[in-house]
Write a structure and sequence with these properties.
single chain; alpha+beta; Jelly Rolls; 14 strands; 13% helix
Length: 226
């Protein structure tokens, strides 16, 4: 028998964080952001009026505002999320410490049967999603090399269950009141919502206020325009 050790070369860190208990009810407030007076809907124990911003029915809809966390009543939560992102950058990705600002943030709605195809987030360093419901449809991450291999012999999917280092796709189920953080270049998607109720989540992007170094002539300062 061949003895083989597997080295997990270039792993891709993804952070899953249970939010501070002081924000345990903020999901209900975020969900109200996705409401307006045109259509009544009931999600869990929250009764409201659902906004369905015009868009493709296949992938769902987003809140009318795409700067949700800029609202004054969400200021503390935005600062908390940014602190989580900066900690992830410093302590997990091992980048030089940077101060981030939030570029855009929006509530996504996926009705039963809807999904979101593979995508990345441009003009962002760290992206994330916050979930506040139980049994939410998971998020799926894919290797950036998927679909670009010179040779594709195909996968033995039964064996992949036992060798996670070889998996080209990972599905992550995120518990209620948890935040997931990842580098914005990481390919991800939302599979079809097979639950009998809409899937609500808050997504956001971030960018450094300043990156690079003056002594290497790579310094870049960014001024945020609201």
């Amino acid at each position: 028998m061949i003895q083989m050790k597997i080295a997990p070369l270039f792993p891709t860190p993804v952070a899953i964080i249970e939010v501070d208990k002081k924000f345990s009810t903020i999901g209900k407030e975020l969900q109200k952001v996705a409401l307006k007076k045109e259509e009544t809907n009931v999600i869990g124990d929250v009764t409201g009026e659902a906004i369905l911003k015009e868009g493709l029915d296949a992938w769902g809809h987003i809140s009318e505002s795409n700067y949700v966390l800029d609202q004054e009543n969400f200021a503390d939560f935005q600062n908390y999320v940014l602190d989580c992102c900066e900690t992830f950058i410093r302590d997990v990705l091992c980048y030089n410490p940077v101060e981030l600002f939030m570029t855009q943030s929006w509530v996504s709605v996926k009705k039963p049967g809807q999904k979101h195809t593979q995508h990345t987030h441009a003009n962002s360093l760290i992206s994330g999603v916050f979930y506040w419901h139980e049994d939410i449809t998971p998020i799926i991450f894919s290797k950036t090399t998927t679909g670009t291999k010179q040779l594709d012999p195909g996968y033995n999917f039964e064996m992949l269950d036992n060798i996670p280092e070889a998996r080209p796709v990972r599905e992550i189920s995120v518990p209620k009141n948890h935040l997931i953080l990842f580098e914005s270049t990481l390919m991800h998607e939302v599979p079809q919502n097979k639950n009998n109720k809409p899937r609500y989540s808050l997504s956001f992007n971030t960018f450094p206020k300043s990156i690079g170094h003056e002594d290497t002539l790579t310094k870049l300062k960014v001024s945020r325009v609201k």
